[in-house]
């Protein structure tokens, strides 16, 4: 109880977030994640609906919390007044919230919308953008589309019209247009584009294009093996196969399990490992390029002054107005990656109290412009990796919230720096893997989940690591033919080792129910042999699920 009170007193935003249930808290953190927070929150709602079928987001509870009154001290006279929690959220969060409500308006109860609109109107100095979004929402509720308010003033409309005319005068030459407008430059493979600035120099784009071409050539090479592998799996059913029941020693088991899938399957698993290894090398090269081009330089004096100020603000748990980041935090955009590592050491971010870590992550989420991939990866390593590796009990609420906020903003650096390191640690700890499962279930998009799966598939699976694989399959992450074949191969190889494991049985059951359309005749035969070895109470359920697949 004392710990909770200290958190409440230390950070007003943390205190507000604690009032909400888990799903509402995640939604608010997503709305605070940046200018695209509304779309990110919309995808999060869709994802939760697909995972928990029939269970919708509780807008009633969410609205009640946002409209509840909170005592605050008004500046400059320190007058105590009551305000809705909605008005205490950062302006960016409010904008994203009303943008989200415009998207999902048909699914939100009208009384909830009315309460939120009423609470928002109590702001004596409303943000103009929030006000316009609120007017649009009000017009939609009253079904007066012909009275839809105009978002732009007449002056803005004239300026926009002039800008459009100016742009159209350059459309005669595409090359000339691309030189004049940076936002027309076509982005490279999104897997290799950092989550940072949208506008980038020509040299940066050329570097990324080179890395992208490497990745695409690897994908083409792997794609060529798919057709032959699938033919092999389909035709093996008609050939005599050694049964897994006759397995004696562990080495014999592995040999027979590999033979049941044929040499092509072995090549598939090898190619997956090679591709994942090369993909890691590309990621490491992106992160490590600074070691060649950015020599370690001493931190300039003005940056050191900012560090001292940031230390004071962290100790005070200072919340900037309107959910912005302190101006001093811009040194993260100004410094080189090498200098950033030194800055993290000077700020002692890996050792600071978790409430200060949460405050720092709130600033990072609000920072504009966003950080590039290399810097985000360095922060993910410095802020979270040592703390996660040292966990011996369930992670605290401030730490978990800070990690989820950072992951929502910079998911790929978390996958490549934190999650990949955790799944590759020999004898992974249960608490660490629980945290990975939480990130998979609540934060990651399908692209990042596939990246996590490519890391998981190439390491030996333990009983605890099965829970991570199970979380990925529960999310129905779309797998390529190679990854899916490697998954089935792994499961069949481990059939005898995990014959009494309920985690393993649940994993097979999820595979049979969530991926019915991906299971071929070859898969069915090998899975049948694996299920014959199972000794858990779920054996009959597994065989019934397999029978449903074969009867399709």
UniProtKB/TrEMBL annotation:
Pfam families xref list: FA_FANCE
GO cellular component terms attached to this protein's record: centrosome; chromatin; Fanconi anaemia nuclear complex; nucleoplasm
Fanconi Anaemia group E protein C-terminal domain ranges (all copies): 298-549
Ranges for region Disordered: 203-225
Highest taxon of the lineage: Eukaryota
Coiled-coil residues: none
InterPro entries (alphabetical): FANCE, Fanconi_anaemia_gr_E_prot_C
Organism: Laticauda laticaudata (Blue-ringed sea krait)
Gene Ontology biological-process entries: interstrand cross-link repair
PANTHER family to which the protein is assigned, alphabetical: FANCONI ANEMIA GROUP E PROTEIN
Gene3D superfamilies the UniProt entry points to: 1.25.40.480
GN (gene name): FANCE
Protein name: FA complementation group E
